[in-house]
């Protein structure tokens, strides 16, 4: 019998999964399950007897646990990760095609299929950082700033939160002034005036907005999504379509690269769902680190 450690964020999403409900479903499927809440101290003291980790939460919880794993020495035991997504956007799980009812996801773990997952290593900030979803400049970090102030005004349901965030982003795009950004991707320069530069490892970012339809987080490359000043109206139309429940296909400028140098004129930058506040514009270098994590996914 495989042993799992369930790392649960009880406040994620719509808070609709309890400790007893989750452990019951997992154990009924034949896995031994130890429970730890990520809201309590000691959750990151992983046992060597554990075969894999289960993350029940959203993208922020996945990133928090990935941080703990990245701090481990490479000689220490490494753990495959299974996800039970119940955050707001679930961009990481969506990119890995993990969705559906909890009991159906748990059944897929018997297949033992592992998917390599790259990270983007960031240099040039006060401390070295990494991202799972993306690093970006412009409108998305501004969205994070506004949403932090509106937290108490948004409804509790996932749909309400997603719709509110998309509406706020639309207002930001309407009034955002494009800024200069110097970008060198694998030695080729793509500098210009942009409202958004997103270096992504997942298909979607922010309020579940799919920008890179074919992103493979384990291909050893990152995707750079560029929204120049000349495409500002196009991005407004894209957001309005999504706000109204549409699914019209929009294609934006996307460049694949392994090594990226970036100089952003402004101070609006983010790493995953964390807004950074540099005192001055920074010179950033980003390098892909292939296969740093492994996720359990459904087989063919």
Folded structure, characterized:
This is Diacylglycerol kinase. GO terms for molecular function: ATP binding; kinase activity. Pfam families: DAGK_cat, YegS_C. This protein has helices at about 20-30, 60-70, 90-95, 100-110, 140-150, 160-175, 230-245; strands spanning about 5-10, 30-35, 50-55, 80-85, 115-125, 130, 135-140, 180-185, 190, 190-200, 205, 210, 220-230, 255, 260-265, 270, 275, 285-295. With about 300 residues, the chain is α+β, with helices and mostly antiparallel strands. It folds into two domains: about 5-110, Rossmann fold, CATH 3.40.50; about 120-290, Sandwich (Tumour Suppressor Smad4), CATH 2.60.200.40. The strands form three sheets. Strands 5, 6, 7, 8, 9, 10, 13, 14, 15, 16, 17 and 18 form a twelve-stranded antiparallel sheet that branches. Strands 2-1-3-4 form a four-stranded parallel sheet, sandwiched between helices. The two termini are about 25 Å apart. The relative contact order is 0.17. The model has no long low-confidence stretch (mean pLDDT about 95).
Describe the structure in brief:
The protein has about 300 residues and is of the alpha+beta class. It has helices at about 20-30, 60-70, 90-95, 100-110, 140-150, 160-175, 230-245, and strands spanning about 5-10, 30-35, 50-55, 80-85, 115-125, 130, 135-140, 180-185, 190, 190-200, 205, 210, 220-230, 255, 260-265, 270, 275, 285-295. Strands 5, 6, 7, 8, 9, 10, 13, 14, 15, 16, 17 and 18 form a twelve-stranded antiparallel beta sheet that branches. A four-stranded parallel beta sheet has the order 2-1-3-4, with helices on both faces.
């Amino acid at each position: 019998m495989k042993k799992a450690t369930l790392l649960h964020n009880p406040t994620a999403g719509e808070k609709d999964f309890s400790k007893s409900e989750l452990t019951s479903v997992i154990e009924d499927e034949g896995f031994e399950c130890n429970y730890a809440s990520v809201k309590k101290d000691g959750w990151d003291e992983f046992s060597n007897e554990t075969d894999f980790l289960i993350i029940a939460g959203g993208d922020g919880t996945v990133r928090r646990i990935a941080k703990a794993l990245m701090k481990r020495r490479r000689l220490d035991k490494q753990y495959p990760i299974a996800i039970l997504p119940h955050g707001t956007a679930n961009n990481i799980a969506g990119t890995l095609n993990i969705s559906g009812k909890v009991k159906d996801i748990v059944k897929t773990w018997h297949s033992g299929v592992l998917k390599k997952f790259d990270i983007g290593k960031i240099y040039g900030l006060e401390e070295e950082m990494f991202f799972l979803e993306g690093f970006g400049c412009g409108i998305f970090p501004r969205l994070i700033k506004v949403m932090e102030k509106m937290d108490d005004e948004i409804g509790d349901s996932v749909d309400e939160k997603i719709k509110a965030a998309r509406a706020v982003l639309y207002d930001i795009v309407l009034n955002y002034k494009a800024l200069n950004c110097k970008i060198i991707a694998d030695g080729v320069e793509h500098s210009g005036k942009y409202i958004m530069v997103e270096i992504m490892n997942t298909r979607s970012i922010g309020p579940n907005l799919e920008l890179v339809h074919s992103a493979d987080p384990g291909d050893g490359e990152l995707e750079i999504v560029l929204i120049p000043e000349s495409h500002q109206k196009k991005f407004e139309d894209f957001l309005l379509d999504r706000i109204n429940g549409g699914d019209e296909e929009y294609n934006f400028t996307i460049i694949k690269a392994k090594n990226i140098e970036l100089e952003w004129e402004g101070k609006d930058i983010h790493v995953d769902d964390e807004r950074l506040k540099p005192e001055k514009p920074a010179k950033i270098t980003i390098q892909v680190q292939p296969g740093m994590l492994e996720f359990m996914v459904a087989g063919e």
